[in-house]
Every structure is written in structure tokens, then in C-alpha cells.
Amino acid sequence: MFRLEPKRFDEARSRPRNSAAVFAAALVASAVVSAAAADGRLSPARERELTYLVRQDCGSCHGMTMKGGLGSPLLPENLAGKHVDVLASIILDGMPGTPMPPWRPMLTEAEAAWIARALKEGLP
């Protein structure tokens, strides 16, 4: 009688063949992103990505039109007295005791400052 054997999972074969090359590529990409943001200037593509992030992720709590919801309003008139550095710090580190999460694992300081400025000026 013919018997089918289940295919065995070969863990060694499932790993990338050149993990050093994958790691090096990730390291270079990370350095490029950091270097581009180090002087505070972001590419137009990254600005579009951040605008989308603010509208979708921040908007889920602060309201899709930034007029408030679970989180406070993020309109220019509500942020007029706030310094960009303070807002960027809140974006990066969150607000303990509130639902505002820290975004530091996903954003650079330059990106958080860009978001803070964009919100103060009226998000495009």
C-alpha cells in the first residue's frame, strides 16, 4: 500500500540564506532615514505618510477632523499656546495615565516635530 508522508519542516532551509546581507540592508536603510531626518527636513513622500498616519491613527482618538473625541482637539486654535517641542515630546512619549500612547518606537524626533508643526499650522 502507498503511504503519503507529511512534508517535514526544515528550519534551516526556511531561514534567509544570507541573513548578514538582510541585516546590513536594514541597517543602511535605518541610517538613511535617520540622516534624512537629522536636519529636520523630511521628504515629501514621508510628509504624506505622516499626514496619513495623523489622520488615521491620531484621528481614531482625536477625531477624524481633529476636533476631539476620546483625545483632545488638535486644531491650530487649540494648540496655539503650546510649544512645538512640548507637543513633539507628548507625541514621542505619550501621556501616562491617559490613552495617549508613546510613538517613539515608530517616529523620529524630527518626524514628531514635523507633526507638531503641521498640527499647529493646520494639517494639510
Short account of what is shown:
This protein has 124 residues and is mainly alpha-helical. Helix content is 56%, strand content 0%. It has a domain at 42-121: Orthogonal Bundle (Cytochrome Bc1 Complex, Chain D, domain 2).
Descriptive overview:
With 124 residues, the protein is an all-alpha fold. It has a domain at 42-121: Cytochrome Bc1 Complex, Chain D, domain 2 (Orthogonal Bundle), CATH 1.10.760. It has helices at 11-14, 19-38, 44-62, 76-79, 84-93, 109-121. The N and C termini lie far apart (70 Å). The model is unreliable at 9-32 (pLDDT under 50).
Secondary-structure blueprint of this entry?
Blueprint: H1 11-14, H2 19-38, H3 44-62, H4 76-79, H5 84-93, H6 109-121
Number of helices: 6
Q: Main β-sheet: number of strands, strand sense, barrel status?
A: none
CATH class of one domain: Mainly Alpha
Structural class: mainly alpha
Annotated CATH architecture of one domain = Orthogonal Bundle
First and last CA, distance:
70 Å
| CATH topology description of one domain | Cytochrome Bc1 Complex, Chain D, domain 2
Helix-strand topology string? HHHHHH
Count of β-strands = 0
Computed CA radius of gyration, to the nearest angstrom: 21 Å
Query: Into which percent range does the helicity of residues fall?
Result: 55-70%
**Average pLDDT, all residues:** 80
Question: What's the CATH H-level homologous superfamily of one domain?
Answer: Cytochrome c-like domain
Low-confidence stretches: 9-32
The gross shape turns out to be globular
